[in-house]
Structures are given as C-alpha cells and as structure tokens.
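Hi R.,

As promised on Friday, here is the backbone we talked about, encoded as structure tokens. Could you run it through your design pipeline when you get a chance and send me back a sequence?
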C-alpha cells in the first residue's frame, strides 16, 4: 500500500516531479524551477496515477463514454457541449474518493502551512508545453480552505479535463476518453502585496528587443480576472532598461507612483532570463511578491501571433464565461441601460408614422433602421450573450456546493420568472377563452384558419367587419388588436407576425379549451420551493459567502428572464425594419418598378436606391418566401429511433407537426408533437398545445427546453436533421427521460396489429 501511495502524491521539487507524463506540464515546470533555485510556493501534486485509480474504482469512465458518445462531438452545438461537461462535472463531484487516496492527501496537507489558503490547479500532461500551451481551458481554484474543500476542488479540476472549453479543443489537446489524464497541483497561497504577469518577449512581436511586465495590488486573480487595470512596463530584453511605463487605474483614478521599483523590475528581468535559459523558450510567467520575495506561480511558453485559441469562433466562445464581477457589471448594464433603450427604440419606431414619409425620407428611415438593427445585433453578441452565462455560472456554483443527484436541480431556482413570452401566452389564453364563449366567432376563425386562399391585408379587413357584426365581436376585436400590437410586433423567419393574424386563429380555437381544462398553478408552493432551495444553497456555502450566494442566484434569475426578453425585443426592431422595407417595396410595386415578392435584408440597399432614384430601371427580386430549414427526405426509409438529449422529462405519444415557418402555425393541433429546428421566443405560444417537443438544436438552456419544463411536457433536442427525418403526421413516442424519439407505432401497437 505504501508503494502505491508513493505513486499518487509527489511533493513539488522532488525528483519524481520532473516527469511531465506523471505530474503534468505545469507541475513538472514548477519542479524544474525549484531545482534551479527559483522561489516557488510549497505544495504537492496528485499524479495521473491518482486520477487513474479513482476512475478504476468508479463508474466515471462509463459516464464520460456515455456523454461523449451520445452524439459526435463535431456535430454538437456549444450548448450541448456545455451540458455534457456539466453532467460529467456533476458525476466527478458526486463520486467519493476511495479512503486509501483520501488519507495520503490529508497527510500531504498536514505538511503544508495550515494558516495559508491553497490553490488547486490543473496540470495535464502536455499542458503548458511549447507545442500545446492552452491557458485557461482547465480549472484552477484559489483560496481553498479545509480538507473537505480541497477534495472537492481536486474533483472539480479532474472534471475540467472534460470541460466545455477542453472539449472544443479536443483535437488540438489530443483529448481521448480512453487515454487522457489529469494531474492536480495543491499549492500554498500567501497574501501577496503585488502580483502580475511577465513576458520574456513581446507577445505581439517576439522579434523586437522587448519584454513586458504587468502588476496589480494584491493577488494575481485581480489581473487575470480583469478586476483591476494593471501598471504596465516595457523593458529592453537585452538589458532590462525601462523603456515605457503606463499606470493602471486604481479606485477609478490614475496614479503617479509605480507599483514596482526599478529594483523590483530588475529582479523580474533576471527571473525571466533564468526561466528562459532553463526551458529554452521565452516564458509567460505569473508571479507574486511578499516582503521583498518574488515567487513564480507558474511559467509556460508565450503563445505568439494568432493563438489557436483565437483562430476561429471557439476563441469567441471562450470569452462567454465571465466571472462574478464581470457578470455583476453586465447585469447592471443590460438591465438598467440596454433593455430600457431597446424597449424605448422599439416603441419609438412602432409609433412613428412612416406611411406619410415621401420616398426619399422613407429610404433614409429604412436604412437608418437597418443600420441600428445591425448595431443592436452586435450589442447582443457583445453584452447579452455573455450575460446569459449567468445561468451557467449559477448551475456550476450550485452543483459545486450541493452535489445534487440531478445536475439541473438548480433550474428550480429559476421558476416563476416574469417572461415577456409568459405574459403573451397568458394574454393569448384570455383571448382564447373569449373565443370559446362565442360559438359563431369560433366558427368564423376556424374557417379562416383552414382557408389557404388569401391572407392579405384586404382579407383581414373583410374578416374584421364580419367579427364586428357578431355579438361580443367588437370587444374581442379590440382585445385582439391590442394583443397584436403589444406582443406580435416581432419577426419570425424573416416575416412580421403582426402581418399574419391568421397564424393565431387555429391556436385561439384550441387554447381556450386547454386553458379551461388546465388546473390552476399553486404559485405560493412554487415560491416556497424556490425560497427553500435558496436557503439550502446559502447554508451549504456558509455564512461568510451568504451575500455572494444571494448575488449568484439573483444574477442567474435575471439572466434567465432576459435571455428570452432580449430576443423578443430585438425581434421587434427587426419587425419595424421590415415594416419600412415592405412599405417601400409596396410603393415600388404599385408604380410598376418592382416585381417579385418578399424583399429581405439582402435587398434593402437596392430598395433604397429605387426609392431615391425615380429614373432607376425596374427590377425583379427573385426571392421566394423563406424556405423550410430542412425539407423532408424523399426516401421511404425511416429510422426507428432517433437519439438526442433529454431536455425535459416525461413520456408522450402523438402525431408529428413539423414547423418550419409561419404557414405551419395554422396546421398545429392540440396534442401534436412539435418538431422544429429550434423554438424561438417569438413562437413559444405554439407549445401551449403541444404534447411534446423535438428540436434539432440541442441544449438544456435553450428556449424549447425552458418552456417544455415550465409546462411539464417532455422535450428531446439535439437530434440532427429532425425536420428531414420526421414527416408531418408521423406517429412519435418521445422519451424525455432518456432522450429517445421512436418513429412509427410502438412495439405493443405493432403486436396488436399482427395478432388482430
């Protein structure tokens, strides 16, 4: 047993710690620096053999294989990768370490300074090497105190071998479920006076005679997490001479005194040269100082030029994981500034009487709206999408504290949020109940919904007059038009829902029955359950972190609500841009200068040119209505089972209704199984009638999964080509527990048919 223990834990600085295949690249580098006389904080390393031992004594290999084998990784969306990583992380956190490993860890901890908090860092073989320097893909947890907390931190670091970031770079990392390993460093921390990073060459141009030093007060996390702006020096690499110093802002103000002295800078210059001579590459080095002693926290090769981490959209994805301070700033900016501005602009455009503008001014209006819409799309990408990470942050925070059996238990904390879509659906149910109480109105709407002859504005004018002549019709019409202007001034698949009131008639004739049958929700119990979970989380993290836990919950709930609302509000801007575009196209068509139909964003510039230039020759816009995202395959072969992600639990059976556009809204019947590419916030009212949801896009936190769980119906998503493989009317069995969709009659139905 003792010999076995010796392979699990190695003290930093021991000869055995030089083998990067055993202790990982980071720990091996620290050991070599200690041997060369560089000051490194004391610590030890759990080797890859410890990781292997835990896997051999648990079901974790099967969990990893199941999660990564559910669907080819290169076919997964980022949301699906995050979900798989969360489930793997949860499995690691819930898997107890065997006693024969826990005891030597406790013994190693007893040899460290018990008064210092600890840093628990990843050290995968190949990590921080010159060939594969992927900073930030694996976990580092700082300020860890207490033996049990160290164990949990070690489990989280092991799990980060399979983090969403690591899975994105699985090819570059040579990530293989059968062979990939992780070592873990446990290292003393000390109250740093100053800390920062130093680069042995300028990362922007390694050929020039420069090295860079950055410093902040306190721990290095203040710099790495972007909490403080650093002081920054450029030094001559050849001599250490200071070429330039730029002061960082502290307490919101610039300052005149440098954090580091000339002597401090010379120490760092010497250390950079020493590390480069030791490893043969210019280092990217984290350092900290206390009482005049400079310690190196880690050193890795500089990633030069365009890093592989930034060479495609994956680099952008890695920026979508802000930590709590950044989430706090984003939440304040989005909720207090951006959302009110977006709401105000949408209302302003909706109330502007553009119909009275002459052609030139209408062209200006249309182009201004298009420009503003695109600017808001950039804001959405820059601010709204990163803020949506607040829900994921809450999930990881909750699971780390409580290790629940269900890794999505944290989503119970998000119940009862006041979504715009929820208010729209409630208003729709109220309208539907009016329809149920007026049989003649219901018949007229049903006949109109079934008709495919004319959905023009003239048809709507005629229909409105019919409704006005019915007893109770004027009140319904008043409420319906208010509903349209309040909730349906948005775009779906390039069309304005406001221009298609007929898309709602079928729903109105059915949702009313559903609303009457539906039992009332016990909002008090729901609120009580949320509060109980909040107290459970706060109790788990402890009193010192009570305020932090409350903030994490509040930001998670805010981002959960806004991730739906911002889509609807942005859809309103698109709708109002389309209003101007279609108005211009209608004028040109009436003048015989435009043929074709449905101008889109791609034709906006051309429409503007025609409106301004009366001498421009007529044009034909060769655009049809938006095409279905995936047309049904002509082949008669149908797969028996489709495997996806279990996004909402439950079992349901029924006919499929494939929805690719607004026209399909009219075909949807109560009890149908909704099959689509993805449910947008602008179409969630359809789910009120659905018995289940099947989506091509995957993820536990996408809109379809959200509303399915709210309504308590099964949802399976992440099924590639679902709208092509499933046809309208196909009988489906949706298993939201296992993530399986069975196409065709169930086995027992087939048996009944055979023996009947």
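Update: got your reply. Pasting your designed sequence below so it's all in one thread:
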């Amino acid at each position: 047993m003792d010999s076995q223990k010796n392979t699990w834990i190695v003290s930093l600085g021991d000869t055995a710690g030089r083998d990067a295949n055993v202790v990982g690249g980071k720990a091996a580098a620290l050991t070599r620096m200690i041997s060369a006389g560089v000051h490194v904080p004391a610590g030890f390393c759990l080797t890859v053999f410890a990781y292997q031992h835990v896997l051999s004594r648990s079901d974790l290999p099967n969990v990893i294989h199941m999660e990564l084998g559910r669907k080819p990784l290169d076919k997964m969306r980022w949301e699906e990768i995050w979900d798989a990583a969360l489930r793997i992380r949860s499995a690691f956190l819930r898997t107890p370490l065997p006693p024969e490993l826990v005891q030597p860890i406790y013994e190693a901890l007893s040899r460290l300074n018990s008064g210092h908090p600890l840093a628990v860092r990843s050290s995968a073989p190949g990590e921080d090497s010159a060939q594969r320097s992927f900073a930030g893909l694996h976990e580092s947890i700082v300020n860890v105190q207490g033996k049990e907390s160290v164990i949990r931190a070690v489990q989280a670091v092991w799990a980060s071998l399979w983090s969403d970031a690591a899975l994105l770079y699985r090819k570059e990392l040579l990530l293989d479920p059968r062979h990939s390993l992780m070592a873990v460093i446990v290292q003393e921390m000390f109250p740093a006076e100053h800390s920062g990073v130093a680069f042995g060459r300028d990362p922007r141009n390694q050929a020039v005679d420069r090295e860079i030093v950055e410093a902040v007060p306190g721990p290095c996390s203040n710099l790495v997490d972007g909490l403080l702006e650093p002081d920054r020096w450029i030094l001559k690499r050849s001599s250490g001479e200071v070429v330039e110093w730029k002061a960082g802002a502290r307490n919101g103000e610039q300052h005149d005194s440098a954090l580091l002295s000339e002597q401090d800078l010379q120490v760092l210059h010497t250390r950079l040269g020493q590390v480069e001579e030791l490893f043969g590459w210019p280092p990217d080095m984290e350092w900290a100082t206390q009482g005049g002693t400079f310690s190196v926290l880690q050193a890795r090769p500089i990633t030069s030029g365009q890093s592989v981490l930034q060479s495609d959209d994956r680099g952008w994805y890695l920026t979508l994981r802000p930590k709590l301070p950044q989430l706090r700033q984003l939440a304040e900016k989005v909720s207090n500034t951006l959302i009110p501005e977006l709401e105000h602009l949408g209302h302003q455009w909706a109330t502007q009487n553009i119909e009275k503008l002459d052609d030139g001014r209408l062209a200006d209006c249309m182009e201004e709206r298009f420009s503003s819409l695109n600017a808001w799309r950039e804001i959405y990408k820059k601010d709204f999408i990163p803020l949506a990470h607040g829900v994921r942050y809450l999930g990881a925070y909750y699971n780390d504290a409580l290790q629940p059996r269900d890794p999505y238990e944290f989503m119970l904390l998000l119940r009862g949020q006041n979504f715009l879509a929820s208010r729209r659906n409630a208003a729709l149910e109220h309208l539907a109940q009016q329809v149920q109480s007026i049989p003649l109105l219901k018949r007229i709407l049903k006949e109109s919904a079934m008709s495919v002859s004319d959905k023009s504005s003239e048809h709507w004018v005629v229909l409105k007059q019919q409704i006005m002549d019915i007893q109770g019709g004027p009140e319904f019409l008043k409420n319906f038009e208010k509903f349209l202007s309040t909730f349906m001034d948005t775009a779906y698949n390039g069309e304005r829902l406001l221009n298609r009131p007929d898309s709602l008639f079928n729903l109105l004739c059915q949702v009313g029955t559903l609303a009457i049958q539906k039992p009332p929700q016990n909002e008090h119990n729901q609120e009580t359950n949320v509060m109980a979970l909040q107290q459970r989380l706060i109790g788990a993290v402890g009193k010192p972190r009570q305020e932090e836990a409350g903030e994490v919950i509040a930001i998670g709930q805010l981002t959960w609500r806004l991730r739906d609302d911002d889509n609807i509000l942005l859809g309103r801007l698109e709708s109002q841009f389309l209003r101007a575009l279609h108005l211009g196209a209608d004028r040109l068509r009436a003048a015989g200068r435009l043929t074709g139909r449905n101008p889109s964003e791609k034709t906006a510039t051309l429409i503007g040119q025609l409106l301004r230039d009366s001498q421009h020759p007529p044009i034909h816009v060769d655009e049809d209505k938006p095409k279905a995202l995936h047309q049904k395959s002509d082949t008669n072969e149908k797969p028996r089972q489709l495997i996806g992600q279990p996004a909402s639990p439950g079992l349901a059976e029924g006919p499929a209704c494939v929805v690719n556009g607004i026209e399909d809204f009219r075909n949807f019947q109560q009890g149908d199984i909704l099959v689509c590419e993805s449910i947008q916030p602008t179409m969630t009212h359809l789910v009120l009638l659905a018995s289940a949801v099947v989506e091509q896009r995957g993820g536990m936190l996408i809109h379809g999964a959200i509303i399915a769980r709210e309504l308590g119906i099964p949802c399976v998503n992440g099924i590639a080509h679902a709208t092509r493989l499933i046809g309208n009317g196909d009988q489906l069995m949706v298993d939201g527990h296992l993530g399986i969709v069975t196409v065709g009659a169930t086995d027992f139905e087939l048996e009944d048919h055979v023996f009947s």
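One thing I noticed while checking it: Residues 655 and 731 are 5 Å apart (CA to CA).

Thanks again,
M.
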